[in-house]
Design goal:
Elements: E1 4-5, E2 19-22, H1 31-47, H2 62-69, H3 74-84, H4 103-121, H5 127-138, E3 143-146, H6 152-159, E4 167-169, H7 171-177, H8 186-195, E5 202-206, H9 209-217, E6 222-226, H10 232-237, E7 242-244
Parallel strand pairs: 1-7, 2-3, 2-5, 3-4, 5-6, 6-7
Bound molecules: 6-O-phosphono-beta-D-glucopyranose (BG6).
The site of 6-O-phosphono-beta-D-glucopyranose has 18 residues, from helix 1, helix 3 and helix 4.
Length: 256
Amino acid sequence: MTQETITPGSTPDWRSVGAVLFDLDGVLTPTAEVHMVAWGEMFNAFLATVDDEGADTSEYTDADYFAHVDGKPRYDGVRDFLASRGIELPEGSADDDADEVTVRGLGNRKNLAFNEVLERDGVEPYPGSVLLLDHLAEIGVPLAVVSSSANAPAVLAAAGIADRFGVVVDGKVAATDGLPGKPAPDTYLAGAERLGVPSSQAVVVEDAVSGVRAGAAGDFAEVIGVDRGVGLETLRENGATLVCSDLAELVPGGPA
Ligand SMILES: O=P(O)(O)OC[C@H]1O[C@@H](O)[C@H](O)[C@@H](O)[C@@H]1O
């Protein structure tokens, strides 16, 4: 795979693509921002309670999100961030109540905050992403969503785009089927397989470092990185073969 940046007039040849596998949060909907706020509130409240000289309890920032949490399954994000600060908690169980101080308890706490915002504010898809979905539907390319989030079906429904995808591999599907989360390629490979398309003919579209790594670890035709804050260079360095700032740039004849 070679690396390119979208330039005016150079869009992928979508008619030769077997399928497109989209990440959701930050690619189709601006919900990465909702996740970021919910994680920040939860982690900073938690860090304020940590009394351990060996732990780094300085403020959790967006840089922590991009480095340790973005794109990963919920509890992997908690575990990886805590490890970066020298903090280890018991795992807990998936149905821990959100008050318990465990990896799962903290993840559940954040999930309550995320769902509160989703219910209160709703969500609109990125207009540029809808333009690309429209184009791909018009030329008949099979589409899947491959998201680490267990909330993906609720977000797709709230954004009014659920019916555009033949397959959704979300955090719950991955847990049920025992699929390792991003940065492992397994959820993307499962998306292609469920659409009945060889992965080598499928394109991955991602905004997170863990996600472009997942794409690069599979044998996909292309890994497109969309920069929503991670940075074009970082996306490239981690395996994106093509980078852009908005999916409208990938629509033939669209804004470049
Ligand atoms: O907690 P959820 O909704 O299952 O989501 C897990 C992760 O899903 C990813 O899609 C998001 O990029 C992350 O921010 C989020 O933490």
